[in-house]
Design a protein that fits this description.
This protein is an alpha+beta fold. The protein has one domain. It has 2 helices and 19 strands. Strands 1, 2, 3, 9, 10, 12, 13, 14, 15 and 18 form a 10-stranded antiparallel β-sheet that branches.
Length: 270
């Protein structure tokens, strides 16, 4: 009789302690989101035109990480020629500027700004940010917001254009989750084209959603951004992509606790 009473007492104690245990596990998961993880290649760019094709890639060691704020930053020190992979004497295009900011605390976000100049012929540019991964955010809590801006200058006084390359109707600037482009899932694509007249300049700016955040609809483990566009011969452009994820840790904490508490309530009913 005493043994049965002891077992029953232990069971009641475990049930009573369960909410605190669940809170502790939820807090650990939230802290994991704040730490995050950044892929070794933090920015890559390929340019291709009639002269050839060349690529640049930058390593995570070239930037700086602040463990207190959970922020990683990198910027291009000086403009760089993009030379043909097969013939380094041939300049295909130029990378004029680039900055990358990755936030992992309190929630993941990426901001990538890039300035490029086309070569002597229409030039295709493909660019990718680092992949920022984190402990899985459950589907009910996963929401995102993507913003994109681009500016174009006609330097040859013959008109200029910037047009997306990834198919009809697909924007030049894109955000991805659960895998980088061309794998993974595209969250949003913005700015289909910018066209300006001789000697002119133009810009575009879009956000998805227009206000607030949009539900992602599935469990979320990583994010990245991708650009793919053609710039008319001799002209230059800048672009900025910003992709951020919610929830705040407090929201994620509530989702985890609410979900984990269900079996506890069922156990109490027994």
């Amino acid at each position: 009789m005493t043994r049965r009473t002891s077992l029953a007492s232990i069971g009641r104690c475990l049930i009573q302690a369960a909410p605190a245990i669940l809170v502790a596990f939820a807090l650990v998961a939230v802290a994991g989101v704040a730490r995050g993880d950044i892929s070794p290649t933090i920015f890559s760019l390929t340019a291709a035109n009639d002269a050839g094709s060349g690529s640049l890639a930058f390593d995570i060691s070239e930037g700086s990480w602040d463990p207190v704020s959970g922020q990683y930053t990198w910027s291009l020190g000086a403009p760089m020629d993009i030379v043909d992979d097969g013939d380094p004497g041939v300049v295909v295009a130029s990378l004029d500027s680039a900055t990358l900011t990755i936030e992992t605390n309190p929630t993941p976000s990426i901001m990538l700004s890039v300035g490029t100049s086309a070569g002597d012929s229409n030039t295709n540019f493909y660019m990718d940010s680092a992949v920022v991964s984190f402990p899985t955010i459950p589907a009910p809590a996963a929401e995102g917001r993507f913003g994109a801006t681009a500016q174009l200058w006609d330097t040859g006084f013959d008109g200029a254009y910037l047009v997306g390359l990834d198919g009809s109707g697909v924007g030049a600037l894109q955000s991805y989750y659960n895998g980088a482009a061309p794998g993974g899932t595209r969250f949003s694509h913005l700015i289909g084209a910018i066209v300006v007249g001789a000697g002119g300049s133009g810009n575009g700016s879009q956000n998805f959603p227009s206000t607030g955040y949009a539900s992602i609809g599935t469990a979320l483990g990583d994010i990245s951004v991708h650009g793919a566009y053609v710039i008319s011969a001799g002209d230059r452009a800048t672009s900025t992509m910003s992709f951020g994820i919610v929830p705040e840790p407090s929201m994620l904490l509530m989702v985890l606790i609410a979900g984990a508490a269900l079996p506890v309530r069922a156990l109490r009913r027994r």
